[in-house]
Amino acid sequence: MRSVLTLLVFTSSFAVAADSPGVSPQTDAIHRLQTTSYGAESITIPQMLSYQGKLTDTLGVPVGDTTYQATFRLYTVATGGVWFWNETQTVRTRGGLFSALLGSVAQIESVPISGKLYLGMAVAGGAELSPRLRLVGSAYSYLAGKSANTDLLQGKDTTAFVRTGQVNSVTTGMLVDGTIVATDLDQMGAATGQVMKWTGSAWAPRNDSVGTGGNGTVRKVVQSTGVVCSPNPITDSGTVRFDTSYGDSRYIKNQFASNQFASWRIAGQGSCSANSAGDGALKGTNASPTGYGVWGSSTDNLGVYGSSITGRGVFGSATSGPGVYGSSGSSHGVVGNSNSGDGVYGGSSGGYGIHGASSGSCGVAGQSTGNDGVYGTSIAAGCAGVHGKSTASGAGYGVWGEDSLGHGVYGVSYDSSGVYGKSNAGYGVIGRSATGPGVAGISMGSYGAYDSSGSSTGVYGATAGTNQSGVAGIAHGSGGTGVFGHANGGGTCTGARGLADGSLINYAVRGDASGGSSNYGVRGSASGGNSYGLYGEATGIGSNCGVYGTASGGASNYAGYFSGDVTVTGNLSKGGGSFQIDHPLDPENKYLFHSFVESPDMMNIYNGNTRTDASGHATVALPDWFEALNRDFRYQLTVIDEGDGDGFAQAKVVRGVKNNAFVIRTSVPLTAVSWQVTGIRKDPYANAHRVQVEVAKSDGERGKYLHPDAHGRPRGDGVGNVATPDGRHTSAATRPR
Question: Which of 390, 461, 521, 585 has the most CB atoms in a 10 Å sphere around its CB?
Fold first, then answer.
């Protein structure tokens, strides 16, 4: 039955009252005035409305004594429109009567000044009762209209006056010229000597402009030591030159006779200033195709010696020949020594930056106590910083490295190859060592050791010893990689591939990690679209595992550990299952576990709460795919009576699932009900892969256990037990059914 509502309304704050002709006021019985002392202090008026009504059925019979959820709304129109205030509170009836203080849940901040105010009400989430009740003013509330202009002073509001702290309140017309002093100006972050400048959009502190100078007329130049003026002094025009007869070698002319300056024995031109980038303190130019710009010769020391604090001690540049050329009959042709820069640096646009030739020793030799003996760099694509070539008729080496403790050849690259080797028939890079690595490469951004081959192997390692490695990679630094394989061909490529075809148990790829607290036997990483960090595939004729993991010996052993989402497209079989989360009450010190809900069927569970209407009915809507996914529905209903009333309510399903919904009914209207519905999956995958509840073990599995430890059996009795070459045993479960 649908309930109707008879309303009695009284007000205790906003000075409004109901104008419904069918309401009998009960002022003496219900409305009590609040005693207030009138003094200098103001009266605090509660922002609430006192409300009383009576709840009956359609025959006018009062409803039973219980509690109801009532929703109250305030409108400015009698019908339709949008409410500007609403709240829901619990009311208790006695003989159908109830009372409520509107605004006790959601405060009534204000009411419209239009004078039109309507109250609407709905019970237990049902439709709003009709008609709405209009609220009107009481007799003395008309005096409140005098307060409408209390915020005006002589007819002007607050915007006409300047207040303390008011932003942008003082206009230009209010200022008197010459009254603003320097202390009134903001510092604005100005530095010493800066001035205010217009930046194009605002005033800001900036450096003062300084002139760049110009030209003019010099009226008098007087000759001094080392300088010759002609005439002397020059008052109108003349020439100024260095005094070439001055003997302390501070001034150098273009040409000189042999041994003209006893202390230096040099010739050249130019000077170097601290602010002149690219200048040279000593510069030599030679027009002869076979001569030298600078030539130095010494019988027992250095032919040419250069020293620099941060730059280059000796710098040579040539367009086609050697920039710096050194020759020695028994020692080093060129020796460079630097505290922080390059000992010897050579640059060439067409030839060699540094070229050394020796008939009995090294063409180029580098020695350093704290850095690189020989360092080469190249900015041209496809060129080498250091290039070695052997043209001997027998076996030779383009680059040979030898060291008693470290690496014979050491390559470092920040974006390409540390050491690059190429061969048309043999090995691009070959290394030989009695105890250490034959070839070791370290790279900051690319390959430590890299090779390219047209049809053979990029990197090849072979060993004939017992328990030795053909290729071994070691990474000592954090985040390093011992062996790295890279494939970037246009087709399907493999960065690293292992092949094992021995007669016993073999590993195509094997990774062992030990010694630290966080180790990875094999680690895979992939980026880009549709990538796999680790991909496993098995195509044998028996029970195959694309990826197999086992763990033992630790306090917590995980055959597989996944940090992130996991997708399984086939069936999943397990000994048990649970979720593990940080404990809600003590997340720093405890975990919380819950076991999975298991079933022999492929069962789905759906549940929720609802409330019946005044007729005792409720329709429960399910997802629009519910019937497409499920069959064999089962229902459970539980009545919720939080008020613990004297009556006893019953609930039942009056219409099963149809059009993705079912209908329930309770013996008592407006009753809360908790419901649960289960269904068995009927999608195509479920129909093709029904769970076999009981399965007989195969001949190879009979007498074996999935969990031998739980049955007090040795691990060798496990299903799929495999003995590894190191004597350990692993046990693999059967594949999911």
Answer: 461
